[in-house]
Structure formats: structure tokens, C-alpha cells
From TrEMBL:
It comes from the Eukaryota. It holds the Pfam family 2-Hacid_dh. Residues 123-315 form the D-isomer specific 2-hydroxyacid dehydrogenase NAD-binding domain. The gene is LOC107765918. It comes from Nicotiana tabacum. Belongs to the D-isomer specific 2-hydroxyacid dehydrogenase family. It is an enzyme of class 1 (oxidoreductase). This is glycerate dehydrogenase. The lineage of its organism: Eukaryota, Viridiplantae, Streptophyta, Embryophyta, Tracheophyta.
Length: 348
């Protein structure tokens, strides 16, 4: 699909993206926009090389693509100056290679914070209250009437929410769980989450003044402390060498038998084989997963686990957010082509 065929700058989007604002932005600024309409979901390096061709000023790409040495050198040879991932995460992008070939890299932080945190909160609730299992039971016509033991789950109020990686998304999630369900907080991050701490303190004071039990917070000295103490744990680190299999067999064993683990970051942060084994051996342990180690696949056995809620990497999938991500991605590419500052820059 080609927009503004006579535009001066050739910009490629490897996928169609929601909304029209991003398209208008590019075409109003003299770009010839080519949107790839290839049916297959994940484009290979070869597919993208063919799209780049001999002349290309910038590319908007997706987190499913492998943006490394091969693509950045080709983009640079084609005169390309900019690449933007339509994602906040950029573990699929070799930023060093991009720098080497003089291609600026952008990502799309900010607009997906609340949407992603809302999905992490949804998965926490779905796991705690066994919503998916109960839904399947109902649809299968198995409901014969109210029973004292039917789908008994966990009450969140007064329990402890654990956040590993208290950046933008982790902090927004923590705030939702604290304010929504009056949970106490324990978090682990290399940096102090000062604003989050202030929020919990102020909210705790408000609860106290209202005659309610105040909520508390603690910055853990180690990740293990969070795993041992929290009832619901949500993972929000970036994926790199240091966070690969951060949650492994040993660390799963440290968690409470009835804990809930939520992952909306990247699949390889959890050793999924170890997780399946843990779920099998601990039926009261539950997970809510948006991401998987080998997307689009799940490790064998995971799909059979009743104590797992699984969704297909949709944490940022609200209309407002996806349109915002598309707009930021277009601005990143346009900005570099036109010499404006790049909005999201993983180097900064
Ligand atoms: C991201 O942005 O990194 C998410 O995984 C998709 O929105």
C-alpha cells in the first residue's frame, strides 16, 4: 500500500498500524509511505531486505523482527537514517549495530504505560479469582448451582503485591493494585522508585485518617526477598543478558505455594520449562502470562495448565495506545529524516 507516491522521502512500515494520524504525519511532511501488506505475521530478515531495496530513508518496524547487523547495514546503504520499533521494548534491536551504521533508533515509551499496567492488573485478578477456568466451566454447561467450594480463589486486599522492575509500567501497576485492592507493596529495582514510595505513603496516611488499615511499602534488598514475601508478583524488567531466565526453577521454589506470578515484560525472563513443571507440581500456584519464551509458541504442557491464564502479547492493545505508538514511531522516523529530535531513544 503506497501513500503519497511522489513524496521525497521513502518511508517503509513493515506492518499496517492502527489509526491514520501516523500516516497523515508522514505524508504531510513529504514522505512516500509504503506499508507492507504481506499476509505472514512475522517478516524474515530477507523479507525486510527486499522491502528496503536500494533507497529508503527510514523504517517503522515491529518487535517480531530481528533488527541486527544485516538490516542496519542494508538500511544505511540505502541511505536510511532512522528506524523505529513500534514498541517500548527493543530486545529485538541491536542498538550497537544501528549506531555503527549511523541509523538512529527510536521506541515508543509512555503511551503504553497505563494500558500495559491495566493488563498486568487484569491478569492478576483473572489468576486470583480463577476467571478463565470458571468461564470455561460455565460454557461447558457444568454449572449445576452454587457451592461453597466452587472456584474459590485468593482475596487480594491486605496481601502483598511484589513488583520486580519498578519503572514506568511496574510503578503504574503497583499503584493500581495498591489503590484498587489496598495491597501492601514490596518492590525490587536497581533504582529507588521515589514517586511510587511517596504515593504509597500518602495513600497509607489517607487510609489511616479514614479509619482503615494503612498500606505499607518496602524496597527489597534483593529480588529473592520479593519472591519470598509477595503474594502477587509482577515482572517488569527489560530483557537483556542479565534478566534472561531471571525466574528459574530455584527462584520459583522460593515463592509462596499459593502465589500468583504475572509477566507482561518479555517471555525469556521466565524459564518456561521450569514454570510448567512448577505449575504441575503446585496446583495452587497461578500465573498470568502475556508473553512467552518462544513466541508465538508455548512450551509443551503450558496450554493444559488450569492454573495458567495465557493471552497473546496484548498488554499494549488498547486503541488509544496502539494509535499513540504508531504516531510516536512515525515521529521518531520523521524527526530524524527532518532533523528533529527522536522521541523515544533507547540510548537515552
Ligand atoms: C512493547 O511495547 O514492548 C510491548 O511488548 C508491545 O507493546
Amino acid at each position: 500500500e503506497v501513500w503519497n507516491p511522489n513524496g521525497k522521502y521513502r518511508v517503509i512500515s513493515t506492518k499496517s498500524m492502527p489509526g491514520t494520524r501516523w500516516i497523515n504525519l508522514l505524508i504531510e511532511q513529504d514522505c512516500r509511505l509504503e506499508i507492507c501488506t504481506e499476509k505472514k505475521t512475522i517478516l524474515s530478515v530477507e523479507d525486510i531486505l527486499a522491502l528496503i531495496g536500494d533507497r529508503c530513508d527510514g523504517v517503522i518496524g515491529q518487535l517480531t523482527e530481528d533488527w541486527g547487523e544485516t538490516l542496519f547495514s542494508a538500511l544505511s546503504r540505502a541511505g536510511g537514517k532512522a528506524f523505529s520499533n513500534m514498541a517500548v521494548g527493543y530486545n529485538n534491536v541491536d542498538v550497537e549495530a544501528a549506531n555503527k551504521y549511523g541509523v538512529a533508533v527510536g521506541n515508543t515509551p509512555g503511551v503504553l504505560t497505563e494500558t500495559t499496567a491495566e493488563l498486568a492488573a487484569s491478569l492478576s485478578l483473572a489468576a486470583a479469582r480463577r476467571i478463565v477456568e470458571a468461564d470455561e466451566f460455565m460454557r461447558a454447561g457444568k454449572y449445576e448451582g452454587w457451592l461453597p467450594h466452587l472456584f474459590v480463589g485468593n482475596l487480594l486486599k491486605g496481601q502483598t503485591v511484589g513488583v520486580i522492575g519498578a519503572g514506568r509500567i511496574g510503578s503504574a501497576y503497583a499503584r493500581m493494585m495498591i489503590e484498587g485492592f489496598k495491597m501492601n507493596l514490596i518492590y525490587y529495582d536497581l533504582y529507588q522508585a521515589t514517586r511510587l514510595e511517596k504515593f504509597v505513603t500518602a495513600y497509607g496516611q489517607f487510609l489511616k485518617a479514614s479509619g482503615e488499615q494503612p498500606v505499607t511499602w518496602k524496597r527489597a534488598a534483593s529480588m529473592e526477598e520479593v519472591l519470598r514475601e509477595a503474594d502477587v508478583i509482577s515482572l517488569h524488567p527489560i530483557l537483556d543478558k542479565t534478566t534472561y531466565h531471571l525466574v528459574n526453577k530455584e527462584r520459583l521454589a522460593m515463592m509462596k505455594k499459593e502465589a500468583i506470578l504475572v509477566n507482561c515484560s518479555r517471555g525469556p525472563v521466565i524459564d518456561e520449562v521450569a514454570l510448567v513443571e512448577h505449575l504441575r507440581e503446585n496446583p495452587m500456584f497461578r500465573v498470568g502470562l502475556d508473553v512467552f519464551e518462544d513466541e508465538p509458541y508455548m512450551k509443551p504442557g503450558l496450554a493444559d495448565m488450569k492454573n495458567a491464564v495465557v493471552v497473546p502479547h496484548i498488554a499494549s492493545a488498547s486503541k488509544w495506545t496502539r494509535e499513540g505508538m504508531a504516531t510516536l514511531a512515525a515521529l521518531n522516523v520523521l524527526g530524524k529524516i527532518k532533523g528533529y529530535p527522536v522521541w523515544g531513544n533507547p540510548n537515552s
